[in-house]
User: Fold this.
Amino acid sequence: MQRKMLAALAASVIGLAGGIAHAQQPAPPNLDTIPEKMPFATPYGAPIPAQRAQELIQAAIVEANKKGWPMNIAVVDSGANLVAFLRMDGALLGSVAIAQHKARAAVKFRRPTKVFEDAVVKSGLNYILSLDDIIASRGGIPLIEDGKIIGAVGCSGGTGSQDEAVCTVAASLINK
Assistant:
């Protein structure tokens, strides 16, 4: 009899905990809503020149050094081709490819990679992770000049917010 009461009590507690956890989840967005305009439709422009890409890298280095954050910094052109890259002394080796991936995803999908992070973390849209070339981590920012995407910058080596902060400084040289 005691076993049955304990089992019933355990089932009640588990059910209650599951109900509380379920109640705290945000409502998923309605994926059946059809927008009037195409989102993230900024056109591609001429590729960023190498000299300007190097200027972005230098701005990112200055910001990262101010904070004491060793970073990997990548700049790609409007075709997602690597134009400039720098691994700061002490930056994580594993983040070399991640910085480049963030830059490529930002230019290919014409949006900051934070959009993908928010889609997964805040909205529970896990299908995003099944799309080719996605990286659901902030720190990739498109570079927009005269209303056209000329490339993107990607940073990795710190937390997502640190990566994004350094990239934002670099991107601000173009995204005004």
User: Anything to note?
Assistant: Residues 9-14, 16-23 have pLDDT under 50 and may be disordered. Strands lie at 72-77, 82-87, 140-145, 148-156. Residues 50-171 form a domain with the Beta-Lactamase fold (CATH 3.30.450.150). The longest helix spans residues 2-23.
